[in-house]
Design brief:
Four Helix Bundle (Hemerythrin (Met), subunit A), 167 residues, single chain, mainly alpha
Length: 167
Amino acid sequence: MIPVSYYLATPVHNHREIAVLIILIAVTTDALDGYFARKFGQISEVGKVIDPLADKLGVAIVVVMLTIYGDIPLWMSIGILARDGIIFLAGLYIKRKTGIILPSLMSGKIAVSFLALYLVLAILQYPGIQWLLQMTLLISSATLVFSFLQYTQRFFMTLRTYAIKGD
């Protein structure tokens, strides 16, 4: 995300559009990497931790920068960063207690997709799409909360199941 940070911070011609292009390339290659890893059975335990961590760090960098520049509200940034941090730490806790690495939930993938759209629109800041920016802010907020509740429920269910089995 260093190139994205550079283009967000440097007021060169079309710097925001270049940042969006880099983000779209990163998202596409990440999706292709995941697809081919699953298709060819190249999924590793380390990859299950490193890939989501890298995604969360990339999002965090963009979110912090957009907050500093006043492109997204502080409450949204705090919500995104807190949610991602809690989910990641809970995943590490589950790994430590049970030895398993839980996969991402579909609701989380949907929420992050809406969040990515919101962040792209926030970066571009085109005057004619402010209504779309506001709509994606509401949708991404709602889906982030919903997915967080599902992750929380799964966390406690996993701990309960582990405790019942007595492993």
